[in-house]
């Protein structure tokens, strides 16, 4: 039977202890250097920072030489504001549904909502109002069961 030649010998033990002691000393040195007050660290780093170049703005361009950039915001023509492009029955159903749904979640039925549509003809306005009432009832029912 062979003897195990890999067993720790006296020299290996001392080498292992020396490496552990060096690691512990390094940890203590790093912790002590990190815990210095900021005034000391600023004083030590101040001399190295003073040698760095400082950025200065270029003010040699006259204010009128740069091109004028037009605004990228487009404004809708006045005749498009307030007009709903959806069909009256679809708009009334959708608007009523969401108003009813949120009222159903809050538990407050028949809160006052604006049901005056911006449609041109009387028949479109009446269609909107009736579709709104249908959508509101359906939305309120679903909203009250959702919460």
Strand and helix map with partners:
Blueprint: H1 10-34, H2 38-50, H3 88-106, H4 122-146
Task: Report what the structure shows.
This protein has 147 residues and is mainly α. The chain contains 4 helices and no strands. It has helices spanning 10-34, 38-50, 88-106, 122-146. The protein is elongated.
- Helix/strand-derived category reads mainly alpha
Order of helices and strands: HHHH
Q: Tell me, rounded to a whole number, the average pLDDT.
A: 78
The rounded distance between the terminal residues' Cα atoms is 80 Å
Our Rg estimate from Cα atoms comes to 39 Å
- Please give the largest β-sheet: none
Number of strands: 0
Helix content: 55-70%
Name the overall outline: elongated
- List low-pLDDT spans: none
SS summary, helix count: 4
From the structure above, extract its key features:
single chain, 147 residues, mainly alpha, 0% strand
Short note summarizing the structure:
Helices cover 56% and strands 0% of the residues. It has helices at 10-34, 38-50, 88-106, 122-146.
């Amino acid at each position: 039977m062979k003897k195990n030649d890999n067993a720790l010998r006296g020299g290996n033990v001392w080498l292992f202890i020396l490496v552990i002691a060096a690691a512990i000393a390094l940890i203590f040195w790093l912790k002590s250097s990190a815990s210095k007050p900021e005034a000391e660290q600023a004083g030590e780093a101040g001399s190295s920072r003073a040698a760095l170049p400082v950025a200065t703005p270029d003010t040699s361009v006259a204010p009128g030489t740069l091109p004028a950039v037009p605004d990228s915001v487009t404004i809708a023509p006045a005749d498009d504001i307030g007009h709903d492009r959806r069909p009256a029955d679809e708009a009334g159903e959708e608007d009523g549904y969401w108003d009813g749904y949120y009222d159903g979640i809050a538990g407050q039925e028949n809160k006052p909502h604006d049901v005056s549509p911006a449609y041109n003809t009387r028949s479109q306005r009446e269609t909107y109002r009736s579709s709104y009432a249908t959508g509101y009832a359906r939305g309120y029912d679903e909203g009250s069961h959702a919460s």
